[in-house]
Specification:
The chain is an alpha/beta fold. It has 19 helices and 18 strands. Helix 10 crosses helix 12. The longest helix is centred in the first third of the chain and has 26 residues. The radius of gyration is 29 Å and the shape is elongated.
Amino acid sequence: MERILVVDDEAFIRENLERILEEDGYRPYSTASGDEAVREVSEEEIDLVLLDLNLGNKSGLDVLRAMREVDPEVLVIIITGYGTVESAVEALKLGAYDYIKKPFKADAIRLIVRLALETQNLRREVRQLRRSNPMRDLPDDSVMVGSSPQLMQVYRQIREVAKHETATVLVTGESGTGKELVARAVHHLSPREGKPFIEINCGSLPFNLLETELFGHERGAFTDAKSRKIGLFEEADGGTIFLDEIGEMDMNLQVKLLRVLEDRKIRRLGGTRNIDIDVRVIAATNRDLKEALEQKAFREDLYYRLNVFPIHVSPLRERREDIPALLELFLKHFSSAFNKDIREISRDALDLLMRYHWPGNVRELRNVVERICIMNDRQTLLSDCLPREIWGEEPLKETPFTYQVPPEGLLFEEIVEQVEKSLISQAVQMTGGNVAKTARLLSLPRGTLRYKMEKYGLVETV
């Protein structure tokens, strides 16, 4: 049963909120004291706090800051009067989950509390999954984060193939999905850990340079060969060589690589003897090698030599459930790297990041978090911190609005509801029912918008 703390200096408000929360099966506690509320958060596990901004002679913002100091994970909903909306927005910047204005309706409270607790449960699940991540014992340069079925399958494949230290591995996937991390994880979990891990991008060098990099050369092998050079296969002896972008390798060089895989021997350029090597080969590509075979751009015999143990890394758009854990990892890293006190990403910003299609995959997500950490000093990153390509459409521009009062008078509340329903309906149509985008268009908290959409029978499609 979730524990909810109500902090308000008005006894009527506290009693009313406790009654609503008890009816919904929660365990509410209440206090009129900001200091007592901070003490409660520091000593007890509180799932949610409903905090009034005006606590007599105590500022709710100061209480919020103190709560976040003792428990950075505490979830707080701000209760604010009509004249303190600016302060509520400031509270969001300090890390509050959302705010609701007085006077509030019971249904609105129930909805925003339910959404907040769903968010809190999701955060806890992410932290638990990160602790139980089977890749957590890897070095920093090999760590993989996520708990999607696709990534769990990759974890299992890594652990199995790592046991067999000579098996060749072919890692496929779009650019930015983390193919190098897979290669490093296989190496570090294998008996070859502690031996060299050598990597080279086969698409970054022309044929002649790549050849000498891989196999080395003897002095005098060509005009500029003034001394012997040890190739990467020799340097990797006993360890692992990672051939990234193998699909870009020249066809002539593919023949030599095939011979190395078959014979486990190399010969330096200009050399006269074969050199035995003990190396696991891991190759990676973002190309469709089967299509390359049809186009005669890749050797069929080399493909089957490399494809002994295939591992496919799915694009991020197909495993969106991994995004929160990746965000937490990158946010912690860059917040520390740039000496910032950025602790989390707001719910609206997370919704936008979850819906974005991520053509650059995990690498793009990492770059986005790095960029917003550089540009912001807030404890909580809001949706307006995100790059334009993430949040898409421009916010709705303000348009002048007039309404003539007829001589016979009117029902004010009815007219307000008609206008409100019309505006929300237009915004819902513009965003295709996307609640996060609709809330941004109308400058409304998502909890408030969802309540109004339910009230007017408007459908949330995504």
